Amino acid sequence: MFNALMLDKQDERTVASIRSIDEASLASSGNGDVLVRVEFSTLNYKDGLAITGKGPVVRQWPMVPGIDFAGVVEASSHPDYKPGDKVVLNGWGAGETHWGGLAQKARVPGDHLIALPANITTRQAMAVGTAGYTAMLCVQALEKHGVAAQDGDVLVTGANGGVGSFAVAILARRGYRVIASTGRPEEAARLRELGAADIVERATLSEPGKPLQKERWAAAVDCVGSHTLANVCASLRYGGAVAACGLAQGMDLPATVAPFILRGVALLGVDSVYVPRARRIAAWNAIADEVPVATIESVATTIPLADAPEAAARLLRGEIKGRVIVDVNA
C-alpha cells in the first residue's frame, strides 16, 4: 500500500483526498513498464487547475494528479532502467490521462523517463520541475532562432512564477540583460538576486494596447498570454522573437499581424509535455551544468503531500512565489 492524492468527480465538482492505495491498482492507471518509488513531486499551474477543478486538465477519473516527479526505480522491464536508478518525469500526460506524481509510487512507460543528472538530487529536480525545464526550453528556442546576448534586452513576463524565475536566472547566467515583468513589485529584490537588471510593472503590459508599439525588447519569454503576449509582440525590435509557454492571463491572443509582417518578429510556441526525449535530455543536462544549487533552492519551499490541495488553491490565487516541492513521504 502507498499514499496518494486522489481526485474524484462528484456532482461536477472535483474532490481531492489523501488515500491509501494498493500497488496493484497502478497496473490499471496506464501501460507502464517501470515502477518508481517517488521521493518528491511539485505543484505547477496545471496541477493547481487539476486539483481545484478550475480547468479541464483531468481526462480520466479517478486521477492521481502531478505532472512531475523524481524518484528511484523499484522495478523495470524497460532496457534503459534498473532498480536503484534515479529518474525524473515531466509531462507525457501524467496527472491528466494517467496517474501522476503526487503519490509515493508511480508506474509509467520507461520512454517517458530520463535519468536524473548525477549532480542533481531528486529534491532539486522538483525544485526545477516542469517550470525550470520549460524555462530552459524557452531559452534554447530563442537561441536556436538566433537570439544572442548582444542583441539587447530580453523581457520575461510572469517573472515571479516558477517558469519566470528560472527564465530570469538562466538568461542572466548566459549573459543576457534581463527585464522582469511582475505584478508584485515587493519581489523586485529577489528578482534582481536572480539576475534581473530592471523591473517593469505588469500593468504596463496587461491592458489592451496598440498593434505596433515602441521597439523595446530584442526577445522575450512569455508565461502569461492574452493581452500581455500581444503587447510583447507589438514591442519587439525588428527581427525579435518571443518564446510563449504560458496562459496565466488567458488563452486568447488579441493581436494583429502587424508585428509579424512589418517587423519580422517571430512567435515561438514552447511545449513541455510531449517534447522528444533527446531535447528533454539536452535541457536537463543544460540545467545541471548551468543552474547553481543555490538558485534552485532559493526559489523553492517544501510541503507535505497532505498540504497539496490547499497550496494548489493558493497557487491559483497568486499567493505563492517561486516553486513548491511536495515531499510525498512526509
TrEMBL record:
Gene3D superfamilies: Medium-chain alcohol dehydrogenases, catalytic domain, NAD(P)-binding Rossmann-like Domain. InterPro entries: Acrylyl-CoA_reductase_AcuI, ADH-like_C, ADH-like_N, ER, GroES-like_sf, NAD(P)-bd_dom_sf, Zn-ADH-like_protein. Residues 13-326 form the Enoyl reductase (ER) domain. It holds the Pfam family ADH_zinc_N. GO terms for molecular function: acryloyl-CoA reductase (NADPH) activity. NCBIfam families: oxido_YhdH. This is Quinone oxidoreductase.
